[in-house]
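Annex B. Sample input.
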Amino acid sequence: MTSYPDSAVTDDIEYAERFLQIIPKDVEFGLIPFVPNRAQRHLAAHWHNRIIILKARQLGMSTMVCARFLRKATNWPGVVAACVAHEAKGTHHIFDDIIKTMYENLPDGVRPVRKRNNVFMMTFPLLNSSMSAITSIQKGSGRGRGGTAGRAPTIHLLHASEYAFWVRPEQLIGMRQAVPRSPFTDIVVESTPNGASGAFYDLWHSAVRGIGGWKPVFYEWWWDDGYSIPLDPEEVIEYEADELALVERHGLTPEQIKWRREKLEEFESSGEHNRELFFQEYPEDPETCFLTSGNCFFDAPFLRTLKASAPAPLEERENGLRVFRYPEPGYEYVMGVDTAGFTGGDCCAFVVRDRRTNERVATLKNRDMAPFDLAEVACKTGIEYNTALITIERNGVGLSTVEKALELGYENLYWSVGQDGEPKACGWSTTSVSRPVMLADLRQEVADMADDVIDANLNDDRLIDEMLHFVKGVGIGAKAEAAPGENDDLVICDAICGQVKDVEGGGGAVY
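Annex B, continued. Sample output.
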């Protein structure tokens, strides 16, 4: 009998390369030895026993997870491993194409005796261990194919595949409770993105914020070296702005850019808005991949391009203030200010625009700033920008910022006026009447930028990100707002600027 070093059954990569065979994407080649790709090796090297994976299509994450689970279930006693797919086809693929193929081609001495319980489960009686594949509960059903999909007994290794597409994502809550917290156990949640809401979206953003003990890992499409197309003889790729940004930031090759172009054309040819589905199926960043142009309030394709070429600030101060253009003598500026509401998610923010060109020349975004401090920073910045017209949203806690600015004696604050033309109240009131107007005007302004009617000068990638995460309301009376877990502070500030940029003196319209 062949003997193997202990590391062969304790190390994921060594186990895979020594013992496992897989069905490749090009099935005509038959079985091939499992040589983990770059993404799979990275996952193994950065493993965590509570891990959530946001990924592009077909990077082999399920294959790597199944290899790890099979290694443990066939070498340790009493192990229960379960892989849960979002649909029956996925269950067949995980069990028949991955798990079963790997097990049946293990060499003698490594392959334990198997007892087949049913079509989606195998047990190893000498170890009292098992490995199964399950379909998550489907609509109108209390059970999933391949096993009970509700409450479960103890599970040691749990894989939730394509979790963003589960019909009943709450099922995972009960299954997670069945996994003991120990260094040996694993919970893996992986998926391509599927919109800016839902259980996977929420879990991912919680992990990014360090909540719940999860490790977030993101894999862009270029982790797959196969996503490239050779250039023709003497072919030269001339990069667009977004392509150049990918080349400079991530080192993409001309062959990868050619693949991207052809894949984008493939999506575009299949219908309106489908171009944006490329960024969902083949994500390029872990924020905007959750969004498609169908639910984005603003022009998502244009904003993606603009974000890729967004300039670095000339100066970035510790308080979160970014300067993109220093004040010019004789120029006039306007500032929109939004105060955080102490909800934990909002930020104090302001946007400064050049009144003449509409360029966003300075921005501030700070989660920890108090209302009085915001007033002081806004007034100081306003003085720098030739005593800019400062317009503070006075809703809620914003009134504290207004009162502090008045106390500081700032000379150019915005006042709404009454029907008689006299000043009514200091600051801007965002209401059910004024909000749709200011947002519609800002959306039209972005559309004009996309059509080259006006200069595209948003500048700050934080503002562009907020616009990309600002989504349409669903249903009668629903309002456009930031996607769950996101904020819209800079968007509101910029929209306020758009309403007051033509106001002379300090008086404005009545809402």
